[in-house]
Amino acid sequence: MKKTLYLKFMLAYFIFGVFCFIAVTVFVPNMTRERLIKEKAEALYSEATLISNTYASGLYTSETDLETVKTQLDALAVYLNSTIRIINPSGRLVLETQKPLNVEEVVIIDNFDPTAMGGSYYMVNTFFDTYSSNVLTVLAPITSNYMVKGYVAIHCDLGTIEASCNGLLRISYITLAIIMMLSVIILIFFTEIVYVPLRKITFATEQYAQGNMHYEFQVDSDDEIGYLAACLNYMAKQIAGTEDDQKKFVANVSHDFRSPLTSIRGFLEAMLDGTIPPEKHEHYLNIVLNETERLTKLTNGLLTLNNLNTKGMMLNRTDFNINDVIRATAASFEATCRSKTIAISLVLTGEEMYVNADLEKIQQVLYNLIDNAIKFSHHDSVIRVETSLKKNKLFISVKDTGIGIPKEDQKFIWDRFYKSDSSRGKDKKGTGLGLSIVKEIINCHNEHINVVSTEGVGSEFIFSLPLSKKSSEED
Ligand code: ADP
Fold this sequence. Notes:
This protein has helices spanning 2-53, 55-60, 66-80, 158-209, 224-272, 281-311, 322-331, 334-340, 359-375, 421-426, 434-444, 469-474; strands at residues 83-87, 93-96, 122-125, 135-144, 147-157, 317-321, 343-347, 354-358, 382-390, 393-400, 449-454, 458-466. The chain is α+β, with helices and mostly antiparallel strands and 475 residues long.
C-alpha cells in the first residue's frame, strides 16, 4: 500500500503532464492559428471594402485613371504587407500591385469564381492556382449602380501569420513549463504533508498490530492527518495502559489467592502428618475456615466487579426510601458491633427520603463503607451515618473515629487490591476490592464519592445520590 499510493500520485502527475503537453502542442497551435487568420482576414476585409468603395469604384466610374489607382494601391500594399488585385467578374486581372502595369497584356484568372468563397469573407488556398502555396485571401465586390463591376482581392502571405503564431506558442510552451515546475512543488508538498506522515502512521499501525503498543511516533501538523496520528498514539497508549493494568490485576489476583491457599495447605499437611496434634486441630481448622471465607469473599468481589464492568451502565433504577435501606444495613452489623462495643448512630433527613438508584447496589455500597468503618474503628467508638439534602441531591456520609488513612495512601484506596500497610495487620480478611466496587457503583450512577480522612483521627466517606422525582417535587 505504501509504495502504490506514491506511484499512483506519480502516475497521475505524469498523465497530467502528458495531457497538458498534448493540449499545448496540438489544440493550442490550431486554435491560435485560426484565431490569428480570422483576425488578419477581418482587418484585410475592412481594407478591401474601403478600397472597393473609394479607389476602385472611382476606376469604374472613370473618375480616376488606372495609373493613379495603381500608385495608391502599391503604397497601401506595402503598408499592409500584402498583394492587392482588382479583378473583373469575368476573371480578368485589371491590376496587381508590385507588378508593372501593362494594358496590352490580358491576364485571365482561370476558373475565377467569387462564389467559391461560400458564405465566408476569406479563404486560405492558392487562389485559383495563381499562387504556388496557400495564401490568405479576402474578396470584396466593387459595386456601381447596384451592379458588381469587379472585385478587390487582398492576398496575404501566411508566413507572417505563422511567425506571430509561433511567437504566441512560445509563450504557451513557457507557461506549460512553469505549470509543470509548479506541479513539482505540489508533488513535493504532497510528499511532505501527506505521504511521509501517512508512512509513519502505517508503520505505527503495523507495530501496534504486532503487539508493540508502546511504540510512539510524532506527526507535527494540526490538520486531519496530525489529528489521526494523535488519536492513534492516544489509542495505543490506552491499550498499553489496559494491558499493563490487566497484567497487574492478574498478578494481584494470583497473589491474593496464593497466600490463603498456601496457609490452608500448610495447616492441613501439618495436621495430616501429625505436626499439629489432634487436640489443636479445632483451633487450626478455624483458621482454615477463615481463610476459605476470605477466598469466597475475594471471588465474590471479583465477580461483582466483573459484572459491573461488563454490564456497564445497566442499572436497575427504582425509587426507594434510602432511610429504610440505611437502617436495615446498619442493623445487619448488630452482632459485629456488639462484639466490638461499637455504636452506629443514624442522623437521617426526614422520615422518608426517596432516591432514584439501583437498590441492591446502593445496599452493597453502604455495606462496604460501614464494614470498613467498623473494621478500622477502635473499640467503644461511635460510627455516624448521616444524610443531608443539597440541590436535588442526597448526600450520605459514613464517618468513623478509627485509624484514619495516611494522606499519601488516600489516592490509592480506590484501586483494586489496594490495602494500606497500616490496615494489613488489623484486617487480615480484607480483599482490597471493597472500595473499588463502591467507586464503580457510584460512577455507574453518574454520581461522586469522596473521602476526608486524618490518620489517627478517623475517616468520612461521602457520596451523592439523585432524589426521586417525588422527593424533589416535595422539596
Ligand atoms: P478492604 O477489603 O481491604 O477493606 P477496601 O477497598 O474496602 O478493601 O479498602 C481499601 C483500603 O482502604 C483498606 O485496606 C484500608 O487501608 C483503607 N480504608 C478503607 N476504609 C477505611 C476506613 N474507614 N478507615 C481507615 N482506612 C480505610
